[in-house]
Amino acid sequence: MRNILALVFVFSTLLSVGQSDTLSLDSVMKWVDDYHPVVRSLTYKMRGAEAKVTSARGAFDPKLAGNFSEKLFEDTEYYRYGEGGLNLPTWLGVDVYAYRSFAQGTYLNPELTQPDDGLWRVGVSVPVGGDLIWDERRAMLRDAQLIVERTEAEQRIAYSDVKFESMMRYLEWAQKEAELQILYEVEQLARERFLLTKRAFLAGDRPEMDTIESRISWYNRKLKVQDAQAAAAQARAKLSAMLWTEENIPLEIPSNYHPDLSSLNFVSPPDSATMYGMLAEQPQVAALTVEVDRALNQRRWTRAQLWPDISVKYNILRGAGADAAWNIPDQYQWGVQVNIPLFLRKARGNAEAADNYYREAELKQQDAVQKAEAELFGMQTMTRTLGNQWLQSLEVYTMSERLLEAERRRFIIGESSVFLVNSRENAMINAAVEWLKIRKEYLLSIERQKRLVAAYWDQ
């Protein structure tokens, strides 16, 4: 099954990579963008947060309401009462409503007495206590809106982590493949040197010790190649774990595919001022800033609960008959409802908890800002250092190759020994491995800066 999926991967990426055996970094990043499960899940996470906003807005939905009751006993209609209407909640906490009611019966409560055609009641319910300042409906809606902002910051964090992880695994694979190529070339040259030494020994031009030493050197190089092959295969498998199909099936990079080493060139580090400018929108800081805003929202609501709970209702009344008229000064109904807890322990406790939550969130946000600035400064310092080391280690590697090539020519004409050639080879291999390591770390140091400020999200 994995082989079939590998073929699917090959044919799907041929057009984007240009060569049948080379997998470019851009094509890997594009594949991760399109099909990685974490990246695809971000859409659903945002939809879930937006659904909470929709749910919170439901508290402000207009509502149709009605009720009906009737009592009939021993052929006597005691009462028959019903009403229906529309209630319109508003952002300021004021409810506007309009109802029509009717009431009749032998033993009708005098309070419900009204014209035979029924009664219109249009009015408002106004909180004049804490709910006028900030009520639960507004607090819940604001909190849901802030959750959307926090989710966006979390999206940027998750997306940047996936992109960086993919980049890191690709560069690791590229490093191991490059080391394998160098070790394979050295192994082939060691084999040729052994055969040359063997022929020279049979001709009487070289001692037997040189033949043994060159053979040992060849075998050691073969062992190194085998280790490098295993390391490259392991790195390729780790990168494969980042690649999925549209049907959410994992892919495997075929063994005949290789990274595009020619594209891993030296690039200038990102502009320092630009990175510090983007730091203001750093996602970890942004997420904590949202938490501060949520804490402020909660504190505002809990402090509003310290006020008395007072609600005033005023209704304008009019008969439902065709000849009825609005007589505002003379036909009305109003009332006041007051609810004041004597000790306010619940409200005071909630307010104190909200204050502590706000202070905690604010301190965490300030700490995150300072850490992000320090982290970016350290990353930029490391990038500059690795940039200098890239050029220096590349020069050492180039000079080591020249020395090795000169030593090999001397060996061919009999002016050098197997020991000296092996020493030059070891020095060249160490220089190559060091340069490849620095190249990977330099490119990763740039990507770490991008991940810190979530630059991937804006690309």
TrEMBL record:
Provide an example Pfam family for this protein: OEP
**At the top level of its lineage, which domain of life is listed?**
Bacteria
Example GO molecular function: efflux transmembrane transporter activity
The record, for PANTHER family, names:
BLR4935 PROTEIN, OUTER MEMBRANE CATION EFFLUX PROTEIN
Record's family?
A: Belongs to the outer membrane factor (OMF) (TC 1.B.17) family.
This protein's name: TolC family protein
